[in-house]
Structures are given as C-alpha cells and as structure tokens.
Amino acid sequence: MEIQEQVLKFRYHFLGALLLCLTLFSLILMAPRFITLLAYFCPLFLSTALVLALVFVFAKTSPLPSSDATSLHSAGQGLLNYVAGHHDLPFDTRHNSD
Sorted alphabetically, which keywords does the UniProt record give (predicted)? Predict the structure, then answer.
C-alpha cells in the first residue's frame, strides 16, 4: 500500500515525464532531418553571407569622411532639402512679383 501512495503522490511527475518522452519521440520520428532543413535554406544562408561580406568590403575600402562637422551637416542638409522637395528653382519663378 505504501508504494501505491508514493505513486499517487508523484502522479503528475510521471505524467509529465511520459508526455515529454512522447513529444520527443514524435519529434524525432516526424520532424524533418537537419540536412533537409539546411538544404532548403542554403540559398538564404549564402545570400546573407554574401551581403554581409560586401558590407565589410565596402566598409574597409571606402574612405572615411572628414572630421569637420560642418561639411557633414551641409551635405546632410542638402540631401534633406532634395528629399523634401526644396529644389533650386530658376530666379524668375521664385521672385515673381507681377
């Protein structure tokens, strides 16, 4: 009787262990193999590695910007003006007072 009480005391532990074993067993039998997943995602891995390699190559070969902060600000301001649509218009269309 004492063994039966101990079994009932740990019934949730046994049930959890059984559920874990069944889950692992079904995953091992029904899940695709690692090589299959690797073959499926191989183009994605290769293209990502190529893009990262190109980023590193461009970062190493491109010249560093000058340390002058005003030139960086003016270059950024020109780009923002272009994107915002503040293009330089001809003189007579900007100051049309007629």
Answer: Membrane, Transmembrane, Transmembrane helix
